[in-house]
Amino acid sequence: MLPPALDMVRQLVATPSVSSPDDRFDQSNRGVVDLVAEWAAELGFAVRIDSLPGDSGKANLIATLGAGEDGLVLSGHTDTVPYNAERWTDDPFVLTERDGKLHGLGTADMKGFFAAALHAIGRFEPARLGRPITLLGTADEESTMDGARALAKTGERFGRYAIIGEPTGLQPIRKHKGVFYVQVTVGGQAGHASNPALGVNAIDGLHLVLTALQSWRDTIGERYRDDDFEVPTPTLNFGRIIGGDSPNRICAECKLDLDIRLLPGMQRPAVVAELRDVVANALEGGPWTFDVSAVGGYADAFEGPSDAEFSGVVETLCGCSAKTALFGTEAPFLAELGLQTLVLGAGDIAVAHQPDEYVTIAAIERATDVYANLIQRFCIESA
Ligand SMILES: [Zn+2]
Q1: C-alpha triplet 204, 209, 213: angle, nearest 5°
Q2: Which of these is catalytic: 26, 109, 141, 300?
Q3: Where in the chain is the domain with CATH 3.40.630.10?
Q4: Does 141 participate in catalysis according to the annotation?
């Protein structure tokens, strides 16, 4: 017997699984994987836990119920973003209920999903399944996407249709932008501030780079456009500058971190090459050195599914047409495995990554109904 959904969310929230590119915050997701694995085993799933390469202590969960071709994949990430405890009304790791809202770190994004998915599956006798259900729990979605990347590397298809239960207010998402980070380094030479000729100021070089990147940003918006998106152009955000050490020294090195969001169809390596040209042209003839490189994790843009029947069934169930999102998900990795994929889950993306994040009990119950209907349709009726 599964614990009630609320208890499951409480236990998942109480099990920290922060992932971050910053080692000071990064934690293993193993506690969450083990909890979900235990509940899945309770329902009769064959459970597999794949450790990620290296000694990060991270793992993906792959749980399968039933056998046969095709079937449905329900997928979620087990990690959360870091948090500022002082900005929360209550302890982020203690599920706190107020006015039907369940507050806690990862309630909407996306520990609530596992409670909804498992309870949906629990409504069916495993013997009735003509096609398998696979439950995936990935690591590191919020940092490097290394969990989904490792899944994609297995080459296993896991099923025919996939739902990623990110918080979408239970409106299906069929398309989203891609995201990646680029770091631009401008090198100069340190020297005494009293005489500019004693060094090469990297901040002066970066100033030229910033101006060039601003005009590149304007032109790329003219070249690429998709009006399905609320923000219809690619975006480039100047997120962080690190450089210099003292007002009285000529700055020897400056680093600029960029967040770039691509439209479906745009290729990451081509964009990096273009940025390198922009920086080279901006600094041409000057005394600076430079480097432009893609850093950290990335998610490709996603456009799917091609299977109109799948979209149709999901849209009918949700009572709305599939939409686009500005946030990235693991969908491109599942699509790479050949899965027809949509993103659909309880909760609002606007409260995710925020203090006092919450999901409502009603939304978890609705998600449970929607997932159960999909299981009925794709693992029982079509079998
Ligand atoms: Zn998420």
Answers
A1: 150
A2: 141
A3: 5-176+302-381
A4: yes
Contacts of 165 (CB under 8 A, 6+ apart): 74, 75, 76, 110, 113, 116, 117, 343, 344, 345, 346, 367, 371
Q: How close is the Cα of 79 to the center of ligand 1, in Å?
A: 8
Tell me which of 3.30.70.360, 3.40.50.2300, 3.40.50.720, 2.40.50.840 is the CATH number of domain 178-298.
Answer: 3.30.70.360
- Are the beta carbons of 121 and 135 closer than 8 angstroms? yes
Q: Is 296 helix (H, G, I), strand (E, B) or coil?
A: strand
Task: Find the DSSP H helices in 46-155.
Answer: 112-122, 146-154
User: How remote is the CA of residue 49 from the centroid of ligand 1, in Å?
Assistant: 20
Summarize pLDDT for 341-353 with one digit per residue, the tens: 999 999 999 999 9
Neighbour count for residue 41 (Cβ, 10 Å): 12
Beta bridge partners of 343: 164, 173
CA of 109 to the centre of ligand 1 (A): 4
pTM: 0.86
Q: For the sheet containing 178-187, what is the strand order? A: 235-243, 253-262, 178-187, 289-299
Catalytic-labelled residue, pool 79, 142, 146, 348: 79
Model confidence at 382, in pLDDT bands (50, 70, 90)?
low
Cite the residue boundaries of each domain of the chain with CATH code 3.30.70.360. Answer: 178-298
Among 245-259, 265-279, 296-310, which stretch is predicted with the lowest mean pLDDT?
A: 296-310
* Ligand 1 center to 108 CA (angstroms): 8
Q: In CATH, what is the architecture of 5-176+302-381? A: 3-Layer(aba) Sandwich (3.40)
Residue 142 alpha carbon to ligand 1 centre in Å: 7
